[in-house]
Amino acid sequence: MQDESKDLKKRTIRSFVVRGGRMTEGQQKAYDNNWQIYGLDFENGPIEYKNIFGRESDVVLEVGFGMGASLVEMAKSAPEKDFIGIEVHPPGVAKLMMLAAESGVHNIRVYCHDAIEVIEQCLPKAKASAFQLFFPDPWHKKKHNKRRIVQPIFADQVASTLKTNGQFHMATDWEPYAEHMMEVMEAQSNYDNIAGVGNFHPRPGWRPLTKFEQRGEKLGHGVWDLIYAKK
Question: Which residues bind substrate (predicted)?
Answer without folding.
Answer: 141, 173, 210-213
